[in-house]
């Protein structure tokens, strides 16, 4: 049988989307970043919570820096599940010491701590009793002394920059998803009610939309954040509460257009409830522009969160956030170590650009005129 061409609008839209090179590339990049965000602690060299292992003696090192690292195990043990370690990081209280050299004495490891330049560090002795007793001295050094490489270097606190970047993806993705979810719940609900019922209900909702619209977004986010307090979830809620107005205006306009169509009149004649008509008949025919605006809002949410973290009222230390990383290191741009601020800046730029490109691709694919 000859292959028939599908007339389904969703399949036609998917076919048009597949022909958009930048849209498909952005989709795969976002998918890759999403997988990295979920398994960040599995991929990160520093899998402690928030990748917060500090080594002040090796701060601000350039990408590719290597050093001998002695790990002194903690005497405190935590009963932590595998699930918790994979998704929330290890509760690691081990002490990591960057060293230049080491030797075994009678009952101790003699080390020379890492130091800059020509200054030689003062030697220290660490008792072998701090290590597992069933291991010989050679086995202890083989297990607890490693040559550690920092692929992207270290930040000003001596933390692994690559690990902080990987963990920071979670903040950007989380703020995007939660903010867009809140904006969709509020925007679609209020926009549909205003467009469907009209009259005084429409006037009241439009008044609320216009008042919210007139306040600068960043100023409103700062006000909500200060009211709710500094923190992780407070920023999510604040950003979501400022992004619903665009969704509401678009949904209202779509509902005003769709509710005049004959299938809505037929649904009313059949005695269907207003709730069913809105949810089953009007909204499914109004979601194309909402999908496009959601992609743009995702990018906007990432930028707003980065700006708030840069101002110090976003995700709080020691939580890894790309905006906070730029805040901590922007002064290093004139000190010859611009990569400390440029690397997280490139992360923000690439993720935001991907969402904008996929938004443009969706707009072209869902445009029935093309």
From TrEMBL:
What does the UniProt keyword field contain?
Cell membrane, Membrane, Transmembrane, Transmembrane helix, Transport
Q: What stretches pass through the bilayer?
A: 21-44, 171-197, 204-226, 232-251, 282-304, 338-362
Q: Where is the ABC transmembrane type-1 domain?
A: 169-359
Record GO cellular component, one term: plasma membrane
Q: Where in the cell is it found?
A: Cell membrane
Q: How does it sit in the membrane?
A: Multi-pass membrane protein
Q: What is its main location?
A: membrane
Record-linked Gene3D superfamilies: MetI-like
Q: Which SUPFAM superfamilies match?
A: MetI-like
Record InterPro entries? BP-dependent_transpt_permease, MetI-like, MetI-like_sf
Per the UniProt entry, what are the Gene Ontology biological process annotations, in alphabetical order? transmembrane transport
As for family, the record states: Belongs to the binding-protein-dependent transport system permease family.
Identification of the protein by name? Peptide transporter
According to the entry, what is the taxonomic lineage of the organism? Bacteria, Pseudomonadati, Bacteroidota, Flavobacteriia, Flavobacteriales
């Amino acid at each position: 049988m000859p292959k028939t061409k599908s007339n389904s609008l969703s399949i036609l839209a998917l076919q048009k989307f597949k022909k958009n090179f930048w849209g498909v590339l952005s989709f795969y990049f976002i998918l890759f970043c999403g997988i990295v965000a979920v398994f960040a602690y599995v991929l990160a060299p520093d899998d402690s919570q928030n990748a917060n292992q500090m080594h002040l003696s090796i701060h601000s090192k350039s990408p590719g820096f290597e050093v001998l690292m002695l790990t002194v195990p903690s005497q405190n043990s935590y009963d932590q599940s595998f699930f918790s370690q994979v998704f929330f990081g290890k509760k690691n209280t081990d002490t990591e010491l960057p060293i230049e050299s080491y030797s075994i004495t009678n009952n101790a490891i003699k080390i020379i701590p890492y130091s800059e330049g020509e200054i030689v560090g003062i030697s220290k002795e660490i008792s072998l009793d701090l290590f597992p007793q069933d291991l010989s001295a050679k086995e202890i050094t083989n297990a607890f002394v490693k040559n550690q490489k920092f692929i992207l270097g270290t930040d000003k606190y001596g933390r692994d920059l690559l690990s902080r970047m990987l963990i920071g993806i979670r903040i950007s993705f989380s703020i995007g998803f939660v903010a867009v979810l809140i904006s969709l719940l509020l925007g679609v609900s209020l926009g549909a009610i205003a467009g469907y019922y009209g009259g005084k209900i429409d006037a009241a909702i439009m008044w609320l939309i216009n008042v919210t619209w007139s306040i600068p977004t960043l100023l409103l986010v700062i006000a909500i954040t200060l009211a709710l307090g500094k923190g992780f979830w407070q920023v999510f809620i604040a950003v979501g509460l400022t992004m619903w107005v665009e969704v509401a205006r678009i949904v209202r306009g779509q509902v005003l257009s769709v509710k005049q169509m004959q299938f809505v009149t037929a649904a009313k004649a059949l005695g269907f409830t207003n709730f069913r008509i809105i949810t089953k008949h009007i909204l499914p025919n109004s979601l194309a522009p909402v999908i496009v605006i959601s992609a743009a809002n995702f990018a906007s949410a990432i930028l707003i969160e980065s700006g708030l973290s840069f101002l110090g009222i976003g995700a709080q230390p020691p939580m890894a956030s790309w905006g906070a990383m730029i805040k901590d290191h922007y002064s290093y741009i004139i000190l010859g170590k611009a990569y400390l601020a440029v690397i997280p800046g490139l992360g923000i730029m690439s993720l935001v650009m991907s969402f904008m490109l996929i938004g443009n691709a969706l707009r072209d694919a869902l445009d029935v005129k093309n």
